[in-house]
């Protein structure tokens, strides 16, 4: 749907006339008194932002103050619960150290000298510098980065209106290994029905520490209520490994060898679902031919996992098929061969035919397709408000210089390429970087190179809630209101049935902060780009999403989280029978009582592409999956790996009072056999070093790690003085990681070699 100013204004007019909404919508920030909802101390349903899982929450407010955050009981899959971080949102909200006023740098970059300024001055300074850069180097020489989500859309809209194609999310530091692999195989993303699985193979998907409330709870249910068996491969004894039936301390970066050997056994022993493969899979023969050589005995040598176990696990997987799953993971930065690793993990699910089956992988059921299957309008569809005529941008994206990264460039981009463009002008110079809700100094890897790049730029703008390590190097810092103080668009999180939820302001704004949709719009106006901003408030945008249906918007806001219809898995007869029972005009079932014939794969062949001609064209030799050995460390080094800890988020929460109190340091996990020759004891001061950097921390001696590997929870060890509860505590992982770009998916690498010594 496109929209001009007139239709937007009509909708805006409707919103002020629609009295049901008027008392509910807080309106433009600062313009209205606290809404009755806030004043009466009710719960406001909203969306957490303490991590990007973005769980549905319910924020209780008494006398204008947020006093607790619980889950939204309407969100059954989330159990109506939040995690420890989600429950401490008010500690961020009321932290006296958070940013409450725009800041201008007055000393040298990184010198920590700031002056508070008014918003209008901040916009004017940024706009002037942006126009200068545009005149001298072209609009494309400004890059825009934001962690993906509703905030990113507004920053990227500004980028496009300004004329730069260079927009980046956090994708290449987190999900793009599996995202790009899913594009190649399925033509789009797939979800996992962990709760329905009887047998789960898990390659370092740390769900009991790297928490995603719905998936973490699904795994707990599968294990505790349904007796599912869990097999974990992880170089260290994670909490997930602790709760598993079997744990294999795999050699870092070698998971692909196990995945290929599991495939080899399934094919060699004819344990795979041949009927499914025949009907839905393209490129099976080439894959089968390639994997013949990848026997469990071969994989055992690469991985240190016994061949007999690999063979047995493959048979057990097949035995539980199709209600079994090989989890494709979340953070995909273990190896430069992420693309083939994640393709093979998907491939194992395809081989056992669990697609659209209980306990397997499935595609999100959005309203449009769901309604078509039901033969009636079960769920409302949402419009995508936009602007009909955006400027044409002729400059290529910087990450398109390498054609094999085309798929990655189209889904979030390769953010490390900003560093090359700043420091080496490849493929052309980037001169300005506008960063929102992203902390590359902690999270891109190669801290030293990120620092060099930030210091070399003509303009650095950071929008955050703290003076992070990245913000510490900015020219202007823009303080965003926290998620508890702002409204945002309705989000579509359809799973097995269409589902919407919405972020709502729970308390009045503290200090002089603004939501990022408004920040980037106001900067747009200052840049003379008002024609691209026909909306005037978030409620205008929300109403436009609902097609001007005020009662629908009101309903979604009151519930916070609304799920429509019956859960549907297209190849699960019981699910399809229930669906057809509920909707008399539903599509006719296939002879096997499923909707299998309704499955669509948006790939060139229309099938699941286990081998891909499209990938072959992008990068000759990569169409068919194969094993390429990787060297992640020198012989005298240890592997250095990282993971999430349950009480912190990435490089984000270490200064939040309640969470800093729970944990403020990341001791380095070292095996006793590794520590002994160095004379290192528990709690000793140690140093990790490599050519990327040197970090000092403390030792945690534990059997729960391979002797050739050391581990640290990420996000600690900030180096700027502004983060007083986090700075100088623990090792900074990004400082020890290389600058790298993985083939096809463009991932950065979070595994490195390090030397260890006692200080
Ligand atoms: N060494 C190492 N590096 C890693 C990883 C690792 O395991 N090891 N993990 C990777 C992964 S999986 C990911 S997803 C990335 C994440 O890295 P990033 O994308 O950088 O995300 P976060 O660290 O979660 O948060 C970034 C910033 O958002 C700010 N923030 C929080 N709420 C708001 C808000 O409402 N508005 C604004 N404007 N800012 C806000 C926080 O203060 C923080 O500075 O890191 C990656 N980097
Ligand atoms: N509490 C908490 N929850 C979070 C987050 C958080 O920061 N804190 N972040 C959110 C985000 S952005 C994400 S992406 C997810 C991340 O979710 P996950 O990807 O599950 O989490 P991680 O802990 O980063 O890494 C997973 C595991 O990989 C192991 N590992 C390291 N190298 C290898 C290897 O080569 N092979 C194998 N098999 N394992 C390896 C680590 O020891 C770790 O246990 O969590 C989300 N939830
Ligand atoms: S997993 Fe925890 S921190 Fe992340 S969104 Fe959910 S409740 Fe919030
Ligand atoms: Mo992530």
Set out the fold topology.
Elements (H helix, E strand, L loop, with lengths): L4 H13 L1 H4 L13 H4 L3 E5 L8 E7 L2 E7 L17 H5 L9 E3 L8 E3 L2 H19 L4 E5 L3 H13 L4 E2 L7 H11 L4 E2 L6 E5 L9 H13 L3 E5 L5 H4 L3 E3 L6 H14 L5 H7 E2 L1 H8 L4 H8 L3 H14 L3 E4 L10 H14 L9 E2 L4 H8 L31 H4 L7 H8 L7 E5 L3 H4 L3 H10 L2 E6 L11 E4 L10 E3 L6 E4 L13 H11 L11 H8 L4 H10 L1 E3 L9 H10 L25 E2 L3 H6 L19 E6 L13 H6 L5 E3 L1 H7 L6 E6 L2 E9 L7 E5 L38 E7 L1
Parallel strand pairs: 6-7, 6-15, 9-10, 9-13, 10-11, 12-21, 15-16, 16-17, 22-26, 23-25
Antiparallel strand pairs: 1-2, 2-3, 4-5, 4-17, 8-14, 18-19, 19-20, 22-27, 24-25, 24-27
Helix pairs in contact: 1-22, 5-21, 6-21, 7-15, 10-13, 10-14, 10-15, 13-14, 18-20
Bound molecules: ligand MGD (2 copies), iron/sulfur cluster and molybdenum atom.
CATH class of the domain at 176-363 and 604-618: Alpha Beta
Could you tell me the CATH topology label of the domain at 176-363 and 604-618: Dimethylsulfoxide Reductase, domain 2
Helix content: 25-40%
Tell how many strands the DSSP assignment holds.
27
Distance between the ends: 62 Å
Number of helices: 27
Residue stretches low in confidence (pLDDT < 50, at least 5 long) are 1-39
Bound molecules: ligand MGD, iron/sulfur cluster, molybdenum atom
User: What CATH architecture label of the domain at 176-363 and 604-618 applies?
Assistant: 3-Layer(aba) Sandwich
Strand % is 15-25%
Q: What is the CATH superfamily classification of the domain at 176-363 and 604-618?
A: Dimethylsulfoxide Reductase, domain 2
Q: Please state the overall shape, judged from the principal axes of the Cα atoms.
A: globular
The major pleated sheet works out as: 7 strands, mixed
**Rg value:** 26 Å
The overall pLDDT, averaged over residues, is 94
Which structural class do the helices and strands define? alpha/beta
Strand order of the largest sheet: 5-4-17-16-15-6-7
């Amino acid at each position: 749907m496109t929209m001009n100013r007139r239709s937007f204004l009509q909708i805006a007019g409707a919103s002020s006339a629609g009295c049901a909404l008027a008392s509910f919508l807080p309106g433009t920030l600062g313009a209205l008194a606290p809404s009755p909802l806030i004043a009466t101390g009710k719960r406001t349903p909203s969306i957490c932002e303490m991590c990007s899982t973005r769980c549905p929450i319910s924020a209780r407010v008494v006398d204008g103050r947020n006093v607790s955050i619980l889950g939204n009981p309407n969100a059954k899959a989330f159990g109506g619960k939040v995690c420890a971080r989600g429950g401490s949102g008010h500690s961020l909200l009321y932290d006296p150290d958070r940013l409450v006023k725009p800041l201008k740098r007055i000393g040298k970059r990184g010198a920590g000298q700031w002056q508070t300024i008014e918003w209008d001055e901040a916009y004017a300074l940024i706009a002037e510098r942006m126009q200068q850069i545009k005149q001298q180097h072209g609009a494309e020489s400004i890059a825009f980065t934001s962690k993906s989500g509703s905030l990113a859309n507004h920053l990227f809209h500004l980028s496009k209106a300004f004329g730069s194609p260079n927009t980046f999310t956090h994708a290449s530091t987190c999900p793009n290994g599996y995202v790009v692999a899913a594009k190649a195989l399925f033509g789009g993303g797939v979800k996992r029905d962990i709760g329905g699985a009887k047998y789960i193979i898990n390659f370092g998907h740390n769900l009991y520490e790297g928490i995603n409330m719905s998936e973490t709870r699904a795994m707990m249910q599968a294990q505790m209520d349904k007796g599912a068996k869990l097999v974990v491969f992880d170089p260290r004894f994670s909490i997930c490994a602790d709760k598993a039936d079997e744990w294999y301390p795999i050699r870092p970066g070698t998971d692909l060898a196990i995945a290929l050997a599991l495939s080899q056994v399934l094919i060699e022993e004819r344990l795979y679902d041949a009927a499914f493969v025949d009907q839905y899979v393209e490129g099976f023969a080439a894959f089968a031919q390639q994997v013949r050589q990848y026997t469990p005995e071969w994989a055992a040598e690469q991985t240190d996992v016994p061949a007999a176990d690999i063979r047995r696990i493959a048979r057990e997987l097949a035995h539980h098929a199709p209600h079994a799953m090989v989890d494709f993971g979340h953070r995909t930065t273990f190896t430069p061969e992420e693309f083939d690793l994640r393709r093979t993990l998907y491939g194992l699910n395809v081989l056992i035919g669990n697609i659209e089956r209980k306990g397997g992988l499935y595609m999100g059921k959005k309203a449009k397709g769901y309604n078509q299957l039901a033969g009636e309008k079960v769920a409302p569809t949402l419009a995508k408000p936009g602007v009909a005529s955006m400027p044409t941008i002729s400059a290529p994206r910087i990450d398109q210089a390498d054609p094999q990264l085309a798929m990655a460039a189209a889904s979030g981009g390769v953010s490390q390429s900003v560093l090359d463009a700043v420091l080496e002008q490849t493929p052309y110079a980037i001169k300005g970087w506008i960063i929102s809700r992203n902390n590359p100094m902690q999270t891109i890897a190669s801290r030293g190179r990120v620092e060099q790049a930030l210091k070399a730029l003509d303009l650095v703008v950071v929008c955050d809630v703290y003076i992070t390590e990245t913000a510490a190097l900015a020219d202007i810092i823009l303080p965003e209101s926290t998620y508890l103080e702002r409204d945002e668009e309705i989000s579509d999180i359809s799973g097995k049935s269409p589902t919407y939820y919405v972020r709502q302001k729970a308390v009045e704004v503290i200090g002089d902060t603004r939501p990022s949709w408004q920040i980037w719009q106001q900067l747009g106006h200052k840049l003379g780009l008002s024609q691209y901003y026909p909306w005037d408030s978030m409620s205008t945008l929300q109403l436009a999403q609902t097609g001007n249906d005020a009662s629908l918007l009101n309903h979604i806001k009151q519930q916070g989280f609304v799920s429509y219809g019956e859960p549907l898995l297209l190849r699960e007869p019981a699910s399809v029978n229930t669906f057809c029972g509920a909707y008399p005009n539903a599509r006719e079932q296939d002879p096997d009582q499923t909707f299998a014939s309704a499955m669509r794969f948006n790939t060139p062949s229309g099938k699941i592409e286990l081998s891909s001609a499209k990938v072959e064209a992008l990068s000759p030799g990569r169409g068919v999956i194969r094993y390429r050995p990787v060297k992640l460390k020198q012989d005298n080094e240890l592997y250095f790996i990282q993971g999430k800890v349950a009480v912190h988020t990435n490089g984000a929460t270490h200064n939040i009072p309640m969470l800093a109190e729970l944990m403020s340091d990341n001791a380095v996990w070292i095996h006793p056999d590794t520590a002994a020759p160095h004379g290192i004891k528990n709690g000793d001061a140690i140093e990790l070093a490599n050519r990327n950097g040197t970090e000092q921390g403390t030792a945690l001696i534990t059997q729960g790690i391979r002797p050739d590997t050391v581990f640290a929870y990420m996000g600690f060890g900030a180096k700027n003085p502004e983060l007083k509860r986090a700075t100088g505590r623990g090792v900074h992982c990004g400082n020890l990681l290389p600058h790298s770009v993985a083939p096809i998916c463009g991932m950065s690498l979070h595994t490195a070699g390090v030397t260890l010594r006692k200080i």
